[in-house]
Amino acid sequence: MVHRPPPARYNFNMKLLYEGKAKQVYEADEPGRVIIHFKDSLTAFDAVKKATMEGKGALNCGISARLFQFLEDQGIRTHFLGTLSATSILALRLRIIPLEVIARFRAAGSFCKRYGVERGRQLAIPLIELSLKDDSLHDPPICPMSVLALGLADEEQLEEIQKTGLDAAFALRGLFKEKGLELVDMKFEFGVAEDGKLYLADEISPDTMRLWTPSGESLDKDVFREDKGDVLAAYREIARRLK
Fold first, then answer.
1. Which of 161, 187, 209, 240 has its CA 20 to 30 A from that of 221?
2. Which stretches within the chain are classed as H helix?
């Protein structure tokens, strides 16, 4: 188990460093650390569809904290340092590598549209895909050679990103299997800290994965994307099972 120092009291009236669709990142009062606040906003299709749902931020914060700690216990380095409030965590300050690292076990979402395969098809091998993290370009797929050619990561970092992404996905898939759920796919992000090491970053929540029940019911953001019902009820069910 990786032991991290417990968070001290932090001043939340800090400088805002970054604001995304679902989170805000603030400067902490200690060098090399940031405060990540989870918002109640929910978006899909490059923010074409959006909503605000009270309690969503707290659910994703709690689920992310639980899953980050689980991965730490599996020996996977993450930026998670502790929980500060119901909607905020303390994390290492990183230089984020502008890649989305997607682990897939079954065909779903954009993979089905791209290759014309049916939803739920079991893939012959687990797959790691890379996308350029750029909303203005709609996060296009990018091949490893292009990552290196553009200088987004070096060869050693790229190899570690792909291996860690797959290791983390397998670990989470095993955890969710114990909870009666199937992890279908999962998006990760990575960053580099002041020590030069690579850390798994961002969040690990129903916003960034697909989770199915044995009957194929979605308990993830697809509930919101596809108007399948009460998305917060789905997120609460995941939180309940993880307890």
1. 161
2. 56-73, 110-115, 144-149, 155-178, 222-225, 231-242
